[in-house]
Amino acid sequence: MELKGRLKLIADKIPVCRTACDIGTDHAYIPIYLVQKNICEKVIASDVRIGPVEAARKNTCHYGLNGKIEVRLGNGLDTIAEEEAEAIIIAGMGGTLISEIILRGIKLARKAKYLVIQPMNDLEIVRKMLLDNGFEIYDEELTEEGTKLYNVICARWTGEKAIVEENIYYHIGRRLIEKNDPLLKFLISRKIVQLDRALEELRNAKEMNRGVVDIYSALLKDLRKLKQGYLV
Prior knowledge:
Elements: H1 5-12, E1 17-23, H2 29-36, E2 40-47, H3 50-62, E3 69-73, E4 87-93, H4 95-104, H5 106-111, E5 114-119, H6 123-132, E6 135-145, E7 148-157, H7 168-171, H8 174-178, H9 184-204, H10 210-227
Parallel strand pairs: 1-2, 1-4, 2-3, 4-5
Antiparallel strand pairs: 5-7, 6-7
Helix pairs in contact: 1-2, 4-6, 9-10
């Protein structure tokens, strides 16, 4: 099994460990890769839908990995026991849903050594949820597939609530800035365009929400500063 783009970056963020769990596994491509590459001895592949579970079982059987990949049907972190998995992957879902999954299974998430998260949207919600609940975001990286950009966030629980000085750091991960990710400027430029459009729509609305306009305007100002290297 060879992976590319988004899936490859997710897999690359998993350290060598005994057991990992892939929540929302879909076709079990990441679990198969992790076992084949000897990154994990065992992987639990779980999904809330029967279709992906059946596809995962079929692929696991095809690669002869039934003894090393256990496919489970269930909702979020309910499919694993406490400390059963050193690494937990939650990818390919909306940021709000990922946040709900982690908060609902917060005790399990705290016990994992590594959380590798790939939200499809609402990254600011995920970052805020993690930082407000004592998780450290120790790494973040961008990857590109066609015209799409994807963020992969790596976190672990420390029990210390982070102090975030500027709202901008919920929208643009601090780790991306610190490591000067090669795709960072592209991400910032894209967000500037999106915010410009959103502000235009808000200002042209019959009943303009001044509070939201002010928040978006401040964020847009910070994004432009960040792009020019003035905000670190």
